[in-house]
Amino acid sequence: MYLANMVALAKMDANEIIEKEYTNKGLKYESKVNTNVLIDKLKDTLITMISLNNPWKRLRMLKHIEEEILKNIIPIRPDRIFKRKVHSDTQMVNRMNKKRAL
After folding, report:
1. Per-residue pLDDT of the chain (102 residues; tens, 9 = 90+)
2. From what superkingdom does this record's organism come (predicted)?
3. Fewer Cβ within 10 Å of end Cβ, the chain: N or C?
């Protein structure tokens, strides 16, 4: 639960920074933070940040995570909806994966 709250706050902060940086660049699409990368970066360092008593180290870790997040920006493409392809033939091929080895 705490991770979800931290992800939401970090995403809002990063999206504000992205809006400021990319407004005058004349890009075709708006940009946003890649949420999967954000979760990955935060889940690795969240426990360490909580356990630190020094607020300066915690702030430095948060700034480092923010820099890493801002490197992973994806465009927002409107009306990009692709249906998932259902491959029923692959279900029979992978049946051997769940059998016992002995």
Report:
1. 778 888 888 888 888 888 888 777 777 888 888 888 888 888 878 888 888 888 899 889 888 888 888 888 888 888 777 776 776 666 665 566 555 554
2. Bacteria
3. C
Calculate the CA 22 to chain-centre distance. 19
What phi-psi label fits residue 65: left (phi over 0), alpha (psi between -120 and 50 degrees) or beta?
alpha
68 Cβ contact partners less than 8 Å away, ≥ 6 residues apart: 37, 41
Residue pair 38/69 in contact (Cβ under 8 Å)? The answer is: yes
Q: Which residues contact 51 (CB under 8 A, 6 or more apart)?
A: none
pTM of this prediction? 0.64
